[in-house]
Amino acid sequence: MGRTTEPDFDFVLSQRQAFDETKTGVKGLIDAGVKSVPTLFRHQPEKYEKASNLGDTRHVIPVIDLADIGKDPSKRQGLVGIVKEASQTWGFFQVVNHQIPLSVLEEMKNGVKRFHELDTQVKKEFYSRDRSKCFLYNSNFDLYGSQPALNWRDSFRCRLYPDIKPEEIPLVCRDILLDYKEHMMKLGSLLLELFSEALDLNPNYLKDMGCSEGLFCHCHYYPACPEPNLTMGITNHSDNDFFTLLLQDHIGGLQVRYQDNWIDIIPVPGAFVVNIGDFLQFISNDIFKSAEHRVVANNVGPRISVACFFYPSEEASLQIRGPIKELLSEDNPPKYREITFADYEAYHLVKGLDGTSTLAHYRI
Fold first, then answer.
1. Domain limits, the chain
2. CATH topology (fold) of 6-362
3. Which has the minimum average pLDDT: 12-26, 42-56, 62-76?
4. Which of 19, 23, 170, 305 could join 127 via S-S bond, C-beta 3.0 to 4.6 A?
């Protein structure tokens, strides 16, 4: 949020505070009958060029079929090669035949929708910006951060592992979140093996580093927007975790930056989108790429998405880390200074979604 003059800054801050204090988010604006995008949510359209791959089959992120991966060593080796190429070039891929029932995926999306469409007074009880809570709901986690305009979405955030507190999770989505956690931990463990092998490391290397000891689920609700060309579902950013597993519905809107172009990630029924996070790029010394991505606003909706972020545990986040020693050489010296994940995350949260890379701050 650029500080131009003191009155301008104070006026914008007061508007944001007023929006925050409603505790009803973007959905509250729609429920109140807004017909245009409020000033707080208006972005500069010229900054957000359109996707460039419409009808272009050459620019489609890889889709990886996990069927029989545990039965056929040659197939697994082939998939490791695809994961490596996708992680080095796109930073994104999709996985299918992951053994998670479609009924679970549908119920997860339905559970997110049920929560966000709860009675307003009931939902307000969960509204918070206290990130120590197991479950919290709000709109724009960096509402008071540095972004020039707010994003057109509401979210709830739930810690799924470790130290999950079922009693703090709303009943409308409690059972499915507890079930979903088991599936995410299993699939996340498999993906970490593939990432490790793609880096020519022992299959358990990244797991033993603690790359899946913390799991947070962010469940987003993007209401239909009356003027989608004036705002964004979420502005361009990269994730600050090791990697992310995303379940998106059929509406679409997710885009990734690839070769300086924005590319639509077309929803594949039953698939998960997998993307490399900043900290996996960091420890791989830039072998893997944490790609910028964004979500454009739609005039249809609500769009539902469920993002599971894999982090180190609270204890592991205090350990000093640098690029993995086994990946370094004279020709490939460390590109980042050593830091703790806790310090990195704190800087990321203060910086907010301002369109710049958090990693750049730590580059040597």
1. 6-362
2. Jelly Rolls (2.60.120)
3. 42-56
4. 23
